[in-house]
Sequence to fold (604 residues):
Amino acid sequence: MNYDAAKRASVLIFLFVSTITYIGCSSGPKLRGESKPLSEVSYQGIEDAFEAGRYEEVIQEVQLLDPASQPQEGEHKSLDWFFMQSVEGLVDSYHEAVDSNDYYRALSLGRTLVALHILHPEIDIDLLDERELALRKLEEPGEDSLVPFLNRFLFEEIDDLSDAQLEEIAALSVAESNGSIAARIAGELQKRGKMLDSSLSSFINERKRSPEEQLPAVATVWVNRGMTITGGVGLPDRVIGSGFFIDRRGYLITNYHVIASEVDPSYEGYSRLYVKFSDDSDTRIPARVVGYSKTFDLALLKTEREPKQLLSFSPDKTIHVGEKIFAIGSPGGLENTLTAGIVSSTGRKFLQLGDVFQVDVPINHGNSGGPLLDANGELIGIVFAGIEQFEGINFAIPSEWALLLLEKLYEGGDAPLPSIGFAVRETQEGLSVIYVAPGSPAENVGIRYGDLLTEFDGTKVNKLIQVHPLLINHAPGELAATRWLRDGQERSLLIRMEKRKPTPFLPLAKIDRPEDLFPPLFGMRVELIGGGLFSDRYQVQEVFSGSNADETGFSPLDPFTLQKWQVIDDPGVVVAVLRIKKRKAGFLESGVQMASYLETTNFL
Fold:
């Protein structure tokens, strides 16, 4: 159970908005400097980036530079020349990666080239699709894990694959004990009137297990953190969680917060990671962290012992509220514990990206990282959090988000997530930009407050949850194809994404201007109308429906002074202390303290 997450939920419930009287004042945050104007995108900079082989940067910058600004004298190359040569450079790099069997790099370059083709369909780009790359990898001999590539066939189209290709994937899914893929391929073969191979047919029948029969696929994750001294007495410091095997080579999934001491550079104490198998709880098997994502609270571990049973992801299953579910884990260290409940809600915005299930299945210390199963024993999610103060309010990560991250986790280390550097709110018109981070890719390409994001990588979007899987599919440094509306005019932009910070607003809240931060953090647009010795004066221009400011009773034209702006690193909260004259209160001045958690769900 993630009690850091529970602590965060408590902050959201009890601290999110408070109205109090106060004494004292403090200065506001530091102000950021002027951002680099688009006019400073220079021909020389493009030339330098091209010489350094930074082709994605060249392509992005060329679209921003006015052709009239390029040098007219001497033997200077045109902007079109730089653009096309950069495209050729990316294509050459892609084919080199394919020829050298560097499939992860080939996939990354391929995504950039696909994005480029979306906005420039006139450019003919010869690419293998991602399924062909996956098939090539699957055909390679060796002991490398095939699971992340095999799992592509859970969500890629398969109806245009040949019978031979389907049979090859089916054979591999049986060899890798991946029941979800085997079932999907078998279904397609049967649609074509093909007889199933006896091994495939037997495997599909054998994989149908009840939740109780899935117990051997689950393990206890045990982290020894030495001793802690409390009141002069040494006490054992242990973290107990759960995990489940997804790969016959000993790979298993758990929560990041369970193994954080193994990879968190700020942790300076002793830490040793072990796994206990369900049929041998007395033996601790050494394990290591392969990859992890703090944002999604997921980690991939590896042991050198082959598991007896595996679980496989089932991302195409629709989960209904009220559906019967089961959780397997080690609450309080009690291995092989199976608990039951129902899905209370879906689509909860609890993490910064993606969504989660709310469940009432009993969750306690030690359940974190365990599987969430449906009544048929199918894996539908990963247990990760509960709220101590409220019985029966617990959360699980849908398996589709883990599946999207799987390749990044297998690559190793901190699974890199991309970011464009702006925040939005959902409106009837679409995704409206309410914040642009200084120095971000969004600022560098000229995105402004009020711009509407209408399309991402060729998919029309008007909800945040539609953008998240498209964004996660990318890696930092890649290009994304975007379309925008500004004052009714459409604008198409290729944007080179950067690596997302664990909590993007945590550093931004310390350096950026309050008038820029009020919209994404508190839900109101404000205007600076004057500065004072100890405080600045503002006026509310707009209040977003359902926001923090709306719930606090703010209205347009309400004047206020900002007395204090404080960022609290742990638990990651910004506090704003105001003196305001609310129109709804007859413009009588009162003191208001507002708080907002910095792990927002609106930052892309």
Summary: The radius of gyration is 26 Å.
